[in-house]
C-alpha cells in the first residue's frame, strides 16, 4: 500500500521542478497544436459599422450568412456600437478603471449579439454566452446550423491596461480572433464598412492607397494613425499557432462575404 501511495505522488513530468516563467522551459513547450474545429469560419460583424446602420444594411448580410451556411459553417461574433461609446464616455468621466470599462462595453456587445441571434433563430442559429462557447460549440454545430456569440472577450475586470489611455484594448475583433485560434478555424472574416485597409482613413482621405495584403508585423511597424482593426489582433497574429490570417471585407457590398468564404482575394488580407 505504501509503495502505491509513493508511486502515485511522483508523476514523471517534463515540467517537474521547473519554473514556468523560465524562458528555456517556455521554449521547450513549443509543439504541434490540435485544431478542434478546423472547418468553421468565424465571421465578426462590426457594431458601429454594420449593426448600428439597422435593417437596411444588417439584414442583407444575415441573408448572405444563411445562404452560405450549407457550404461554409459559420460562427458569428458581434461587436458593440455607438451605445458602447456612450457608456465608455460616461465611465471615463466617472474615472472608472479599464477593467470596469471592459465589463460595461461587453454588455453592449452582448445585446447586439442577442439581437442577431434572434434574427437568425428561425434559420437554426443559437446564442452562446462566452463561458459556454468551448464546452457547447461542437455540440451546437452538430445539432444546429450555427451560433452567435458576444465578440468582446470576457476579461471583464481582468482586462489588460492599455499602453495609451484607458480604453480596453481587447474588443470584438480580438475576441473573434481568439475564438478562431482556440478552435483552429478555417478563416476569420471581419465585416466592416470599408473596402479593407488603406494607408490613411479613406473617409477623410479619398486618395489614400489601398492595401490588398500585408504582413501583421509590417503593419504594426507602419504605425498608421487609424486602423479598421484592433491593434491587439495584429499582435496576436504574430504569435498565433493555428489562425495565421484575418480578412477585412466591406459588409455593405452584397457578395463580398460569399467571395471571402470562397477564398477569393476580396478586401484586405492581414497575415503572419
What is the fold's blueprint, element by element?
Blueprint: H1 2-9, H2 23-28, E1 41-45, H3 55-68, E2 74-78, H4 82-93, H5 98-120, E3 125-128, H6 133-143, E4 146-150, H7 172-183, E5 187-192, E6 197-198, E7 210-211, E8 213-215, H8 216-222, H9 231-237, E9 245-250, H10 256-261, E10 268-271
Parallel strand pairs: 1-2, 1-5, 2-4, 3-4, 5-9, 8-10
Antiparallel strand pairs: 6-7, 9-10
Written overview of the protein:
This protein is of the alpha/beta class and 272 residues long. It is globular, with a radius of gyration of 20 Å. The chain has a single domain, classed as Acetylglutamate kinase-like (Carbamate kinase, 3-Layer(aba) Sandwich). Residues 1-5 have low confidence and may be disordered. An 8-stranded mixed β-sheet has the order 3-4-2-1-5-9-10-8. The longest helix is centred in the middle third of the chain and has 23 residues, at 98-120. The protein contains 10 helices and 10 strands. It has helices at residues 2-9, 23-28, 55-68, 82-93, 98-120, 133-143, 172-183, 216-222, 231-237, 256-261; strands at 41-45, 74-78, 125-128, 146-150, 187-192, 197-198, 210-211, 213-215, 245-250, 268-271.
